[in-house]
Design brief:
Elements: H1 7-14, H2 31-40, E1 45-49, E2 62-66, E3 71-77, E4 81-85, E5 91-95, H3 96-102, E6 103-110, H4 120-130, H5 132-166, H6 169-217, H7 221-225, H8 229-270, H9 272-319, H10 321-327, H11 330-382, H12 388-418, H13 423-430, E7 448-455, E8 465-472, E9 477-479, H14 488-495, E10 503-508, E11 520-523, H15 534-541, H16 547-557, H17 559-565, H18 583-596, E12 601-605, H19 613-620, E13 629-633, H20 637-651
Parallel strand pairs: 9-13, 11-12, 12-13
Antiparallel strand pairs: 1-6, 2-3, 2-6, 3-4, 4-5, 7-8, 7-10
Helix pairs in contact: 4-8, 5-6, 5-8, 5-12, 6-8, 8-9, 8-12, 8-13, 9-11, 9-12, 11-12, 15-18, 16-18, 19-20
Length: 652
């Protein structure tokens, strides 16, 4: 069994979906170090604990942790055991009994990326093809089901034309048993088809949303600033819609098309004239679906736009519900939201009525076709030119043909209805992610330089920054002066790598800001805590600082005094956006988290504007900023605070 994995194999393999990346033998790495090095090579994921039997559900290849802190690279899970690979690329198979004894329980659950493609559907089809082993039994089941559909009318024809007239009880019993077996087998195949389709749906479900979220988090900051909550949620809803469409309607449309073609050929060979009538009815049904689908497409564009506005308005109410309550404007806020909700529901109801009308027309055409066949065929049976069994078998095939065409038509209408829901998803996927390879982190101070930096938000707007030159030494605390609207926040975002300058350049420790993101923390003016405990918020905003360091930093910033005054301490639950906290408490939590992190550069935008004078003086009076490069904006008390920090650093 390979005990360790060397870097070249890991970089080469997992970065191309065949291995992992570690710069030295994995047994020397802590879990957090392993994840950091993986992320440095643009391989993202999380370490999670699972049962050995669930290993087959983890995206492969992956890393699994063995006893004695060893890691093994698993490339496949087979019936006999796990396929492993060592640093030299040598592969071996280890029996499940051995791996169960050695398995520690921790695995790398990689965040998969969506495949490249021109459209959302194209990308998802590639993902489905990656699960083609699941599709093979579906294809076999569908083929068997179609054969049974073709065979049932022939059994009826033989039963009526031979068993009944000849009085053959044996043949009658055989045919009846055969028909019962066919009916039971069809039901079982239908259940199995849905079961396998659901399995495929669930497998896609575990990767699609995570892959889309990973893509969105890599998008440029300026692009995300232009998107509201409703648009982003619609993007994720589009992924869910197309997944349901491909694993449901589109998947069932393929066998329906095959069945329709096969039945039409058989009917044309037995009764050409009647087959032409059946084909004409099917054509009318298809034309009805095309017209209804075009109408649904147009209608659902407006439905999506209405849903986006309604979700955005609902989020505004829920986010600012305390402010709305305090201002006494509940009625007007709810009235505005209800008007959007009613509009969205009214358009949805129109779409449902259109779908119902289309389905009714298709069903009516099927009934008229069946009645016409029985009338025409009955006349021919009575004059002796046609047997009753032949007519019954043909009628069953015509009904099955219309059912298949109706299924295709309904699937087409659903697909046309779903297309507008994919527009926001397509816009998210069309946006190229920011791909900047990180550089090794620095444990000492980092200097900041800007040379002739110009920036404006678009060509039609004035310059926010013009020819900015800045030199900040490692370990220096610097305030960015200027009145409101002078571009201080914009400059911080440029240094943080969130914006790109229109001209000029910014260097962080000799590298572009994007490659130094792991060395910086940027605290914006409107930073709001998550709906989680104080400890969870501190861990998130400190990039996973250990609990001991968080507690020690909280004592230095004064947050520990407030924590001690609440019954649940660090487990105190915060409401969405920290609505149950004061502005100063929110800022103190954010500052404590930033200072507890191991980041060398702190970019603080009005980070102490809501702190009282005592809290600000306490922060400035200790060594908490020592050794860090701090760039700060602020007015009033914030300026006094930064001045105090400057004096402290100069004296020490």
């Amino acid at each position: 069994m390979p005990a360790e994995l060397a870097a070249p194999s890991l970089v080469r393999k997992l970065s191309t979906n065949a291995s992992a990346v570690v710069s030295s033998p994995p047994h020397r790495h802590a879990s957090t170090d392993l994840l950091s090095e993986l992320e440095a090579h643009d391989i993202h994921g999380r370490l999670t604990r699972i049962d050995y039997g669930d290993l087959r559900h983890v995206p492969l290849p992956t890393l699994v942790r063995l006893k004695n802190t060893r890691w093994a690279l698993v490339t496949a899970v087979g019936k006999r055991g796990l396929a492993l690979e060592d640093g030299a690329g040598r592969r071996s198979t280890v029996a499940h009994a051995v791996m169960i004894r050695e398995f520690e329980g921790q695995v790398l659950d990689r965040t998969l990326e969506l495949p490249e493609g021109a459209t959302v559907v194209h990308r998802l089809l590639q993902l489905i093809w990656a699960h083609r082993r699941t599709l093979y039994p579906v294809a076999l089941i569908m083929l068997l089901a179609q054969l049974l559909v073709l065979g049932a009318p022939q059994l009826v024809r033989v039963l009526i034309d031979r068993a009944f007239p000849d009085g053959s009880h044996g043949l009658f019993r055989v045919l009846i048993v055969g028909m019962v077996v066919v009916a039971l087998f069809q039901s079982w195949l239908k259940w199995l088809e849905r079961h396998v389709s659901q399995l495929l749906y669930l497998r896609l479900d575990t990767s699609l949303e995570r892959a889309l979220l990973a893509h969105v988090l890599k998008l440029p900051y300026r692009f995300l600033e232009t998107r509201n909550f409703g648009e982003l949620m619609q993007g994720f809803k589009g992924i869910t819609t197309v997944r349901s469409m491909l694993t449901g309607d589109a998947l069932s449309a393929i066998p329906a098309l095959i069945t329709a073609i096969a039945l039409l050929v058989i009917m044309s060979l037995s009764m050409p004239g009647a087959a032409v009538m059946v084909a004409l009815v099917g054509t009318v049904s298809g034309a009805t679906a095309i017209v209804a689908g075009a109408r649904q497409n147009s209608l659902h564009r407006r439905v999506v736009a209405a849903d986006v506005r309604e979700r955005g308005r609902a989020l505004e109410i829920f986010t600012h519900i305390a402010t709305i309550k305090a201002a006494g404007v509940e009625r007007s806020a709810v009235t505005r939201w209800l008007s959007l909700l009613r509009r969205a529901r009214l358009m949805r109801r129109c779409g449902e009525q259109l779908t119902l009308s289309c389905n009714t027309c298709i069903d009516l055409l099927g009934q008229l076709q069946l009645q016409a066949l029985w009338i025409w065929g009955g006349l021919r049976v009575m004059d002796g030119s046609l047997r009753l069994g032949e007519l019954s078998g043909f009628a069953l095939m015509a009904a099955a043909f219309h059912t298949a065409v109706g299924g295709l038509s309904r699937s087409f209408v659903k697909i046309q209805s779903a297309r507008p829901h994919l527009r926001q998803t397509q816009e998210l996927l069309d946006q190229a992610p920011v791909r900047v390879r990180g550089v090794p982190r620095r444990s000492s101070g980092i200097d900041i330089q800007s040379r002739d930096v110009w920036f404006r938000y678009d060509a039609a707007r004035p310059w926010v920054l013009s020819g900015v030159d800045l030199d900040i030494r490692a370990g220096e605390v610097r305030r960015i002066p200027g009145p409101s609207g002078s571009g201080k926040t914009t400059l911080l975002k440029l240094i943080a790598g969130l914006y790109e300058p229109c001209s000029g350049r910014i260097l962080i420790g000799g590298h572009p800001p994007g490659s130094r993101r792991a060395d910086m923390i940027y605290l914006s003016q409107g930073l709001r805590p998550f709906n989680a405990s104080v400890l969870e918020n501190l861990r998130v905003f400190s990039c996973g600082a250990p609990f001991e360091r968080l507690v020690r930093t909280a004592e230095l910033t004064g947050l520990a005094e407030w924590i001690a005054s609440v019954p649940m301490g660090y487990d105190t639950r915060l409401s969405h956006g920290g609505a149950n906290l004061s502005g100063g408490q929110r800022q103190l939590i954010a500052l404590t988290a930033a200072l507890a992190s191991d980041r060398q550069i702190l970019l603080l935008d009005e980070a102490t504007s809501h702190l009282d004078a005592l809290a600000a003086a306490r922060l400035a009076a200790n060594s908490i900023f020592e050794g860090r490069t701090v760039l700060y904006t602020g007015h009033g008390r914030t300026c006094e605070f930064v001045g105090s920090v400057d004096r402290y650093v100069a004296q020490n």
